[in-house]
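Quick one, T. Sequence first:
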Amino acid sequence: MTSKVTANSINFILIAVLIDAIGLGIIMPVLPELLKDLTGLPLNKAALHGGWLTFCYAVMQFIFMPIIGALSDAYGRRRVLLISLFCLGFDYLFMAVAPTIALLYVGRVISGATGATYATANAYIADIAPPSERAQKFGMIGAAFGVGFVLGPSIGGLLGELGPRVPFYLAAIIALANGVYGFFFLPESLDKEHRRKFEWRRANPFGVLKNISKLPKLGWFLVVIFLFSCAHFVYPSTFSFFTAEKLDWSTGQIGFALGAFGVGSAIVQGGLIRLAIPKLGMINCAVIGIVMNATAFIGISMASNGLMAYMYMIPAALGGLANPAITNLMSIRVAKNAQGELQGATGALSGIAMLISPLAMTRLFHHYGGADSIPYFPGAPFMLAGLLTLLGLLVFFWAVRHVPVVGTKAE
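Structure tokens:
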């Protein structure tokens, strides 16, 4: 693959992830209002539906993420990406017109089954980037996702002022446009000689985790990824509800805050990480990122005003150093024809985390975030996220004790 084709391919993937993030983030600010409208419940009780909606999404992600990763190893990344994008686009339209909470659940089930483009994009990058550059390229994907979160929630917050369903229509248009763009311009990254036969025993979520965990020195990193994912699902599951309750933010203010977080994440993962990894190494970047995330979670949990919430978005953005470094530490330890399987495994772990975390986080918010709660502590989910992140740091220290130092700052 020539450098020109490689550069174009990376640009295509970054645009795909950018638009996917816009489509995902655009609906986040309106969920509290939409759920209150559909259920007639107060905010802290409507948040429970937010947790169960995420749970349904997670069940399907857990089942289908490794299947889709294995399919991309067998049939190529391009085909899988395009099918996922078109299915997501039509599903956003379905959710936009859903008249009941039951049909909204159906929509989330469909989106969970088809929304695996992020993992496939990571596998695509692993196909075309040399090992020494993968962490930076993974960081670029994170930056594109961050930029999407600058635009998505900001647009969603503004459109949400016109009605909680309006952002779903735009998300559908964005996803379908992305699919059309990819159909004409996205080349295949995995040539036929590096593909492997699709096998159900390796594609089911439990089988793929079993196979990946047998690889040397990878198991403890997967534990870190799991704890990290459990902590980070506090953002999509409770951030909107927390800020609406504790800070009395409107839909527009929630969208603007999520957009500001996206700006910080884009700066870190799109620029700072390129400087940090050569200077500090991947292990040090991972440690700094984990510590910054813990600081942000605990700080946000105790925020009593908007200024404090924005202040802790700085360490939250710096936390973006961790995931690309950890992802690369795993990626360089598997064969080329198993990159999709690895991404499927990490996706399955995220799926398990999404099964557990949003229910726990929204349950905590329900219990401590009501006007009559004793004690009244709407930030309880973020405090739990901070503690999980600190536990992940301890596991990471254990993991790197078994990682051989190869004598370069890239390691």
